[in-house]
């Protein structure tokens, strides 16, 4: 079994490789994080550079070497605490990103996913909510 840190490195490596082969599209012009902490600040950037490698650009998930659940129209996202917990702590094949993201970054990507891809949960998550969830 590989560690969460090793899983995160694999995800980042795959994302970098995907962008390198993408040619001249917007994803290939994005700045990828170097090191252990993510540099992206908006929910859209974080989703594009961290989440979509497994959950796919349309957030509909994938099945293959693993099973990556759909985030599109996902009723589990109704409770904002659920995605906060998953991003911080990970679950099953999803690595814990809590040490790699600030409270603001976690809030940004949670808010992005909860308001895009057919989701319309408007109660915004704050950095304070994430800070409280880390305790």
Order of helices and strands: HHEEHHH
Using the CA coordinates, give the radius of gyration. 14 Å
The termini sit apart by: 27 Å
The biggest sheet, with number of strands, parallel, antiparallel or mixed sense and barrel status, is: 2 strands, antiparallel
Explain what the structure shows.
- By secondary structure, the protein is mainly alpha-helical.
- It has five helices and two strands.
- It has helices spanning 4-21, 43-55, 81-89, 103-114, 127-134, and strands spanning 62-63, 67-68.
- Strands 1-2 form a two-stranded antiparallel ribbon.
- β1 (62-63) and β2 form a beta hairpin.
- α4 packs across α5 (127-134).
- The chain is globular, with a radius of gyration of 14 Å.
- 30% of the residues are buried.
- Mean pLDDT is 83; it is low at 9-29.
How would you sum up this structure in a few lines?
The chain has five helices and two strands.
